[in-house]
Amino acid sequence: MRAVVQRVTASKVTVNGQITGEINKGLMILLGIGPNDSEEDIDYMVDKIINLRIFEDENSKMNLSLLDVDGELLVVSQFTLYGDCRKGRRPSFANAAPPNLANSLYELFVLKCKEVGVKKVQTGVFGAHMYLDIYNDGPVTLLIDSEKQF
């Protein structure tokens, strides 16, 4: 499982002209699911992301987590995080999970984020063409992989 995690002041996702998810201060997560991912990967990723100390404290040091600042979460599925561009000019997506598996794990990820106490969790629409507005704060952008490759 891979994630691009961005600290934001606001973010929203729009599908067919309709806003499907919108947050204020918090984290925008682009989430990619691999074919071998499991609930164990979800647990690792939820714990890692929710507890990342990337929000500033009273001394302007990145020392607070999403939960510490009562931040919000926008999670958007993104199979292209598994795009392999090493050969040729067209990315291969053979390493992305098939849609049925990816959707069920994506939904479980969102549910577990709610269960750990994130006050507001919003989403995109799985498999849809989406437009994102991301107001990156910092900018702070991190890559996280449940296989700990980076």
How does the overall form come out from the CA principal axes?
globular
- Alpha-carbon Rg, integer: 15 Å
Q: How many beta-strand segments?
A: 8
User: How many separate domains make up the residues?
Assistant: 1
Q: Mean pLDDT score, rounded?
A: 97
Strand content: 35-45%
CATH architecture descriptor text: 3-Layer(bba) Sandwich
Q: What percent of residues adopt helix (DSSP H or I)?
A: 10-25%
Largest sheet: 6 strands, mixed
What descriptive keywords fit this protein?
150 residues, alpha/beta, D-tyrosyl-trna(Tyr) Deacylase, Chain: A, two-stranded antiparallel ribbon, 8 strands, 20% helix, globular
Note down, in words, how this protein is organized:
The chain has 150 residues and is of the alpha/beta class. It has one domain (2-145): D-tyrosyl-trna(Tyr) Deacylase, Chain: A, CATH 3.50.80.10. Helix content is 20%, strand content 37%. The protein has two helices and eight strands. The chain has helices at residues 39-51, 99-115; strands at residues 2-15, 18-23, 26-32, 55-56, 62-64, 72-77, 121-123, 131-145. The strands form two sheets. Strands 1, 2, 3, 6, 7 and 8 form a six-stranded mixed sheet that branches. It has a two-stranded antiparallel ribbon with strand order 4-5. A hairpin with a 2-residue loop joins β1 and β2 (18-23). α1 packs across α2 (99-115). It is globular. The relative contact order is 0.30. The model has no long low-confidence stretch (mean pLDDT 97).
Write the layout of secondary structure elements.
Blueprint: E1 2-15, E2 18-23, E3 26-32, H1 39-51, E4 55-56, E5 62-64, E6 72-77, H2 99-115, E7 121-123, E8 131-145
Parallel strand pairs: 3-6, 6-7
Antiparallel strand pairs: 1-2, 1-3, 1-8, 4-5
Helix pairs in contact: 1-2
